[in-house]
């Protein structure tokens, strides 16, 4: 049964993979044997993440890229195929947020969040599709959020983008099933990352309020996402597509 989770010989691209949830997922895939391509805008963070994964004994390299650029997805796919000869797994994790009430959000800010979180995931998925079709299989994991389900006073653009991730996942799953490409989403809850650490500084009492609602009694960690990443990237999930799986310690089921 363990062989179902073996990723030896598979090649995985992880956007936003130089920290937080992306790096946690990349570590899980690396431990299962996958070759890793990390995509991030910060070259120093990229180098540190590569060094961390290399200690696991896997092949890994990074690409410094701004995913809001229209050609970024195609360039990432091309560089990956040039280096490793194939693409088996894509994790669309790159994302950001601008915390403002809807009446205060500027149009360019709204567009930027959507381009970073949603449009980039679409373009990267579109870019890897031919390589996955050629291999005869593929796994795409889109990172949504609890805000794919809930609304937030200062998270309008973010919520829209993450709700869009879920609907995009369903559409791609339906369209690409004949090519044996499974597309699923993961919906993280309150996770201790740079993004939420910043939010805790901006919003008084955020940590305590959310902690009180989490049945597991703790905020999550990036490492909590390694297992679901391996599952959705492996043959163990070959008959699962179009789903959105919360990884939130029970937050989304708590009243």
Q: Nutshell version of this structure?
A:
It is built from 8 helices and 7 strands, in the order E-H-E-H-E-H-E-H-E-H-E-H-H-H-E. It is an alpha/beta fold and 255 residues long.
Helix content: 40-55%
The radius of gyration is 17 Å
Arithmetic mean pLDDT: 94
SSE string, helices as H and strands as E: EHEHEHEHEHEHHHE
Rounded to the nearest angstrom, the distance between the terminal CA atoms is: 37 Å
Assess the beta-strand content as a share of residues.
5-15%
Number of extended strands: 7
Describe this structure in words.
With 255 residues, the protein is α/β, with parallel strands linked by helices. The chain has a single domain, classed as Rossmann fold (3-Layer(aba) Sandwich). The protein has eight helices and seven strands; from the N terminus they run E-H-E-H-E-H-E-H-E-H-E-H-H-H-E. It has a seven-stranded parallel sheet, with helices on both faces. Helix 1 (20-31) packs across helix 8. It is globular and about 50 Å long. It starts with 10 loop residues before the first strand and ends in an 8-residue tail after the last strand. The mean pLDDT is 94.
């Amino acid at each position: 049964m363990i062989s179902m989770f073996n990723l030896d010989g598979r090649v995985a691209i992880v956007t936003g993979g130089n920290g937080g949830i992306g790096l946690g997922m990349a570590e899980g895939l690396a431990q299962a044997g996958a070759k890793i391509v990390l995509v991030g805008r910060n070259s120093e963070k990229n180098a540190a993440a590569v060094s961390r994964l290399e200690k696991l004994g896997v092949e890994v390299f990074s690409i410094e890229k701004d995913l809001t650029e229209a050609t970024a997805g195609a360039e990432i796919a091309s560089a990956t195929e040039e280096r490793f000869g194939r693409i088996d797994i894509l994790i669309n994790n790159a994302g950001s947020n601008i915390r403002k009430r809807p009446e205060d959000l500027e149009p360019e800010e709204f567009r930027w969040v959507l381009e970073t979180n949603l449009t980039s995931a679409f373009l990267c998925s579109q870019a890897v599709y031919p390589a996955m079709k050629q291999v005869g299989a593929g796994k795409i994991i889109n990172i949504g959020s609890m805000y794919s389900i809930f609304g937030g006073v200062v998270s309008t653009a973010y919520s829209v983008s993450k709700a869009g991730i879920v609907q995009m996942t369903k559409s791609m799953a339906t369209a690409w099933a004949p090519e044996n490409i499974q597309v699923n989403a993961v919906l993280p809850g309150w996770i201790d990352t740079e993004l939420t650490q910043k939010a805790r500084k901006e919003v008084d009492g955020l940590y305590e309020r959310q902690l009180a609602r989490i049945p597991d009694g703790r905020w999550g960690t990036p490492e909590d996402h390694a297992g679901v990443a391996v599952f959705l990237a492996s043959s163990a999930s070959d008959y699962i597509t179009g789903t959105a799986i919360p990884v939130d310690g029970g937050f989304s089921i708590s009243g």
